[in-house]
Amino acid sequence: MAGGKPGTPKDHREEGLATAERKKTKRPDRYKVLLYNDDYTPMDFVVNVLVQVFGKSPAAATQIMLQVHKGGLGVAGVYIREIAETKVATVHRLAEERGYPLRSGVEKE
Ligand code: TYC
To answer: Where are the alpha helices (H) located in the chain, listed in sequence order?
Structure first.
């Protein structure tokens, strides 16, 4: 089987690289996808987005939606940057299709 334990530096001894030239295998930075509260987007729409876009269970989605509703914002999920940005674009597209002002954004962890 190829590949070692995650986080274990690759052994380059058979590739002719000196120790000083060995590239670190960096874990990609993680980005939180945030949802922001507004006064118009229906609660059930937000719950459906959390289930369908972020893979949450209906119970977890309801908790996150209520956190956003009461606290102003909440974390929908955590991903590498490209995935996080795609999730934000999907949220905005789905909301705009329905005429809702729901906003989402990313924040580096
Ligand atoms: N505040 C909205 C309402 O009362 C519900 C809501 C929750 C909107 C979360 C956006 O990200 C949001 N209908």
So the answer is: 43-52, 58-71, 81-98
